[in-house]
Amino acid sequence: MTAIWRLADASMAWSRKAASGSPVAAGQGHRQRIIACSPMSDTIRRTILFILLLGMTGTTAELILLEHDEDLNQWIPLIVLAAGFLSLGWAVLRPGPVALTIVRIVAACFILSGVVGVVLHYQANLEFQQEVDPSLTGWALWQKAIRAKSPPGLAPGVMVQLGLLSLVYTFRHPVSAVGSRQAADGIHLRSQSK
User: Fold this and answer.
1) Do 151 and 66 share a structural domain?
2) How many angstroms separate the CA atoms of 125 and 152, rounded?
3) What pTM did the predictor assign?
4) Are 102 and 45 contained in the same domain?
């Protein structure tokens, strides 16, 4: 692990030297400043966005194919996914602090809908298992309910995962007020170390 940090320090020192034309020592003190103020690279941010959109598309397709629209509770993930596509589209096409705030609010809705979905799926499975075998109680009932295939008890957890990916996408985003301030702090720290 120490070798990885040394390599990262040397790499960052080399990039600062190339940018400024003067040598910069790479040591323990630089590692903390680099980690604290380095914005996420554009490549990583685009990759996270691609994975997020791929996951959202797959989840939407699966919910539509499974006809997950029998009642209002089953429409919740579809509505949240639609809001996710709209908010991400806004953040990509017209980036700004307001767009990123909306993405973060929708990400919270993703997480909330995932938790609520797990509870609803578990309750439906619990009721079904108790109808099938009224003698089941405790641990045996829990195991049967959580392992049921219809509805899959933990499937809504994918909404939590998509929400967390959305939050990672917006983390220290260059157009957010926090991201811009941290990027400026990073430039200030680098100029002090010359």
Assistant:
1) yes
2) 8
3) 0.71
4) yes
